[in-house]
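We read letters as residues; the fold follows as tokens. Both lines appear below.
***
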Amino acid sequence: MNRLLPWLRYYVPLSWTIHTRYVSAINVISFLLIDAFPSLYVVLFFCERSFITVFYWGLAFFTVFCFYECGYIFNEVVSVQFEKNPTIRIPKMFFGRMNKHLENLITLRIVIGVIFSWILLSRYPDNTQIYICEVLLLLLAYTIHNFFRGRINALTMPIEVTLKYMIPITVFVPYYDLVISFFIIFFSIVLVRLIEYISKKKKIFGINSRWIIHRESVDHYRLKYYLIICSFVGVLSFYGFVPWGLYGLPLFFFLYRGLCYYAMYHIRVISHIIHTGRKRDHTERE
């Protein structure tokens, strides 16, 4: 029984994400700040700030990862077998079992996601059609992303990342505020990742070497990016195009990346953890 527990944990939604990507306490904190906090911030800006709102946001966040992890699982069990330089995230000793349990792992998450979606939409029904379309689009984008490798991934990747944040937001935020929510999510999170993604795939996109973001400069690039975005959104907020309250999200990431930049060069333990994670995820390839 004890031998079964290590791999049976992958049946629990969110466990795949945590155990394959965030293996230390610092990684988990990073996950909460980068993956969870932005959608909560937007929801609390537009909606009632109460325990009930936070509770149902937590349920929405958990639900979106039920769907999101279906893409993770298929990619890391099936798609990696056809890649030249795959990123192996699950222990090799579990790989055969994961293949046998692939259908169950994905089906369980879909069922839980549908049940929790029904609970959420029963309480917050205003954007039901938009929510359903977003979930279907997420699953479609991940399907294309996992079956095809090439320039099309520069389209599917930002769709996946955007919907990871927008689906929980859609449950709560009025439809007329979804555009500005998308705007702030796109420039605070999605665009910076898209630029890094295209830079890593230089052979596919034929990027001139002068525009490539090398591993030694990635933290400096992120800091400069958020400085520019904070200035851009600040101007829009000054002229009333973006609420000042939403300006806090890009400002948060600017401060967060500033702390990360400092930690990378002055705190050896954190620097080691970050470098180890990047090597594991192949984000330091040139």
